[in-house]
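Example record used in the benchmark description.
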Amino acid sequence: MPPHSRSDEAPPAFLRAVQSLHTRTVRPEIVVEDIPAPRRLAPYTVAMAATVHTDEGDAAFGRLIVLYDPEESRGWPGPFRMGAYVSAELEPDLSGDPLLGQVAWSWLTEALEAQGADHRALSGTVTRATTEGFGLKAGEPTTTEVEVRASWTPTEAEDLSAHRAAWLDLLSVAAGLPPVDVTDISRRARSDA
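Model output (structure tokens):
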């Protein structure tokens, strides 16, 4: 069982939700692991991290946190709240795109919709960061990262598998992975050579 706060007293609704997080398969490029959950955000919490590995190295990283307050004293529109974070390096030419924030946010909303992850009270931010080297680091390439941070309340609280799948879809898109049912021709050509 993944770590969460007050595990000796966890309500059945929370335990069922935690169990549902591990019911779907994961793409082979993605490694998911349970991590310690923040303990002060809600009476019951669970968290996981994921990394996308490609031929070029780690392409994206993310965290998913499930918060549960059975007394609903936190101001959420339900007892559960999902918190998602995704960070990925982008092509440098995208750093100046004025629509980058809107596009990155659409990756999340489209993933939630595609997975049937019904939710309410969606909120969050998209941050872009460009890193340039100077002095002794002047020769290093400029990098651009995008970070998506979001939270929402699931409407079907005891089966969170679609929400986890949406988070993994967001991670995949941010990392530039092709859709599952599409073959990456450039990767295949390199392996055939």
